[in-house]
Amino acid sequence: MVKRRYYIPKKQTGGQNSRAYFLTSIIFLFTALIVFRLFNLQILEHSFYAALASGQHKITEKLFPIRGKIFAYNSFKEKSYNDLASELYPLAANQELFLAYAVPKQIKNPQEMATKLAKILGLPQGELLGKFSKKDDPYEPIKHKVTREEMGEMDKLNLEGIGFVREDFRYYPEGNMASHILGFVGCDEGGCSGRYGLEGYFDKELSGKQGSLILERDAIGRWIAVGGKTIKEKEDGVDIILTIDRNIQFVAFQKLKETVEKHGAEGGTIIIMNPKTGAIIAMASYPDFDPNEYSRVRDVRVFNNPAVFDQYEPGSIFKIITMAAAIDAGKVTPQTTYNDE
Fold first, then answer.
1. 251-289: b or e for each residue (b if 16 or more CB lie within 10 Å)?
2. Domain 64-94+171-341 carries which CATH code?
């Protein structure tokens, strides 16, 4: 008798199932990570990488607007007439200056270079020599606010390794005279902006809007002349014309300073108004400051304009309002007398 043998497959153990599940989980996990990474790169960070790619084949230059000026009226006597005429005079303007910098690795003789520039820029020769001796330094600032005349003298010497960058600075021709009215333009890590006075209040209007110029460049960074370019025009700041009369403002400023110092007062304020129009033609306060040297001020409260910032009890000057109301109501006339008992 022949006996037949049958093979019965054994049941898979739990360990084998666990390994299969683990392997499947790993595959799904890596797939999810890849999908998430692609989503992050192509969707969430698309703008960043698009800008990064653009930066490799485009040159972007910022076009800085010119800050608006602030004018006062400059009254003067006409030669052939007795009446006053006037012209505009800038109380706040822009001064074109330069930053002088050095590329030390291009300077062959630091000692000779330091000797020549020390005379032109009025800087210590040892300080310049220390900067020029840094052979591996690609950039070393020398001096801010270099005038065009100083730059011209340096250009005549054909100095290799010396360069210039234009810098526009706010300039106040009359110094302290209208400091509280104007305020000043201050600079920090975030840039330059108007602080206090009209410079601060109208900073947006005076600043204008920045523009840009985008050009295409080749693989080594050179501008492609026949390539495309995109220009966003800058918008210069607006000018502001005040009702202030420069000559009257100057007299008010001088007389106030003399009077405060003569009587040892803590301070004082003068406001002069045109009674026919209500226009303010002079506004001066003391102590004042020089907006060209605002960083030298020790007490920041000096920057506030007392004429419009401080509270002041009107006292006897309010009698003018009371009398004007009485005349308007017909209760009194300029001929009315009053017996003070």
1. ebbeebbeebeeeeeeebbbebeeeeeeebbbbbbbbbb
2. 3.90.1310.10
Conformational region of residue 25, where left means phi above 0, alpha means psi within -120 to 50, and beta covers everything else: alpha
Query: What phi and psi, each to the nearest 5 degrees, are found at residue 102?
Result: -125, 150
pLDDT in tens, 37-75: 888 777 777 665 555 555 555 666 677 888 999 999 987
* Torsion of the alpha carbons at 42, 44, 47 and 52, rounded to the nearest 10: -70
Q: Is 205 helix (H, G, I), strand (E, B) or coil?
A: helix
CB-based burial label for 200 (10 Å; 0-12, 13-18, 19+) = middle
Tokens of 333: 């006339």
Taking CA atoms, 197 is separated from 160, 203, 257, 303, in Å, by: 44, 10, 20, 8
Rounded to two decimals, the pTM is 0.65
- C-alpha–C-alpha distance, residues 175 and 80, integer Å: 32
Helical pair 110-121 and 125-132, crossing angle rounded to 10 deg = 140
Token pair 């006597």 in the structure block, residue: 77
Candidates 273, 269, 272, 263; CA nearest to 288 is 269
Q: What is d(CA 249, CA 283) in angstroms, rounded to the nearest whole number?
A: 7
The one-character DSSP state at 134 is: -
Query: How crowded is residue 70: how many other Cβ atoms within 10 Å of its Cβ?
Result: 25
What residue has token string 């084998």? Answer: 16
pLDDT for residue 217: 63
How many Cα atoms occupy the beta-carbon half-sphere of 121 within 13 Å?
24
Query: Could you tell me if 176 and 290 are in contact, meaning their C-beta atoms sit under 8 angstroms apart?
Result: yes
Identify the CA nearest to 207 among candidates 65, 61, 63: 65
Domain residue limits, the chain: 20-59, 64-94+171-341
Question: Could you tell me which residues come within 8 angstroms of residue 337 by beta carbon, excluding any fewer than 6 positions away?
Answer: none
Cis? peptide before 287, omega within 30° of 0: yes
